[in-house]
Amino acid sequence: MAGYVLRRLIGVIPVLAGLSLLSFLLLHLVPVDPAEAALNLSNPGASEEAVQALREEMGLHEPILAQYGTWLYKAVQLDFGTSLVSHQPVGQELGQYLPATLQLALSALLLLLVMSLPLGILSAVYKGSWLDRVIQFIVVSAASVPSFWIGFLLIYLVSMQLNLLPLMGRGDWTHLVLPSSTLALAYASPLIRLLRTGILEHQHQPYIQAARLRGISNPKRMGKYVLKSALPPVITALGITIGHLLAGTVIVESVFAWPGVGRYLVESVANRDYPVIQSYVLLMGTMFILLNLAADLMCAALDPRSRLKEGVLP
Hints:
The protein is mostly helical. It has a domain at 100-303: MetI-like (MetI-like fold), CATH 1.10.3720.10. It is 78% helix and 0% strand. The radius of gyration is 24 Å and the shape is flat. The model has no long low-confidence stretch (mean pLDDT 78).
């Protein structure tokens, strides 16, 4: 297991390097001079001399490899530069908005697990019944609807018509219900289908039939053998889903006026605040990669066969 972990950690390094290069190049792929865009925010029609002076201050006059090295060195130290709009350190502003996004994503993850695991198990256990058909209808419907439409629908029904929960903003736990439900409903369908398929695939395996012949009860067989075999693909998908939950808050935070990183990004894109956009891509990409790595390591711990497939003995 230690060899497998080391191998996966080494494999992540070039991926993170590629992500950092992509994040850095965002500043150089835009059709507008970043220095000119920064000056136009506060001083439209700035002179060429002022633009050139700012380019030198931002280090844009240096060779691109030198710029990348300097930017990466600072980024590793969590120094992401200065916002072109607020003139505050980007890392400091991200630190102000990130807790709200993490709070929303974690609450959505909790709701996602509460919904997905029981529905997936029930759908598999009662395959072909009316309950299974109802669950499959819900799964298909939720997968067919965009997350922002789910959010608007919940706002209209729950907040405007029934007046049960706050419309938008961040406050106590009641403000979390609608945005986290929107995120959870948008990503529940794949997990439910994966769990259902995994249970149906493994419950007729010979070792499960042998456990039944030995007199092991159905709930114990389901919990100890079937679920353990069916969970690795679900955990892998869950690692990807958590990354999507963090990135998917861009739309949901805008719909519910949630003061998180996603809404901060939308405002930065509108203002062409390139250092913020760079930092967001790097931060979310890194979290996404690390979450997938953690999911793979959990799968390897649950199912040693996944380690054998890569030539690493347990």
